[in-house]
Amino acid sequence: MKLFVDTANIAEIEALLPLGIVDGVTTNPSLLAKVGVEPRGVLKRICELVQGPVSAEVVATDSEGMVREGRELAAIDPNIVVKVPFGRPGVQACRALTKEGARVNVTLVFSPSQALLAAKVGASFVSPFVGRLDDIAVPGMELISQIVEIYQNFAFSSEVLVASVRGPMHVVEAARIGADICTCPPKSIESLFDHPLTDIGLEKFLADWAKAQESID
Question: What range defines the domain where residue 10 resides?
Fold first, then answer.
């Protein structure tokens, strides 16, 4: 399973890249607004750093506007994936953009039927939001399982990009189900490294080694 980092913060991306585990980046208007820098310049720099898919979202709400913005975003760098929100305008825009050769990430997906429609119009990535479903007492990972099953049944080429990830269990469950990608905030990626027994074990090894050296001296 691929791991994308969900941020527009260059420093956060640069801190994770040396680990060799980042396969791409997802951004949205909220994340880009946080960095307070000209968005297209930020997106171009992210593409240069990551050399993998970088999702950049349109802000138009009509299909014509989405297509127009999508073309502008796709022109920034070959690694740009145009992100459009699910809905009638988004589905129509996805179909138009994919026919032109652009890769599209359909976001804000909350049901299997939405994921099915996005795949039918050629979305490269479909982003179901698991954390937001959990927030309203609907099992988010159940949605991932349903989408993976549907895509496998009909050999859709769309990749399931698990979004709104809140912690390590979402990542583990997504991997077990067979999702293609998880996109995670930097803190969630960092938490994948953590386990108290690893810390305890390392402390013991180092303490034992120190005692051994003292006895030799």
Answer: 2-216
- For residue 115 the two structure tokens come to 């994921």
Instruction: Count how many domains the chain has.
Output: 1
Catalytic-residue membership of 34? no
pTM for this model (two decimals): 0.93
Structural contact between residues 22 and 48, judged by C-beta atoms closer than 8 angstroms:
no
Given the residues 2, 34, 44, 83, the one annotated as active site: 83
Q: Measure the CA angle with vertex 136, ends 144 and 8; round to 5°.
A: 65
pLDDT tens digits for range 134-187: 999 999 999 999 999 999 999 999 999 999 999 999 999 999 999 999 999 999
- Here the CATH number for the domain that contains residue 24 is 3.20.20.70
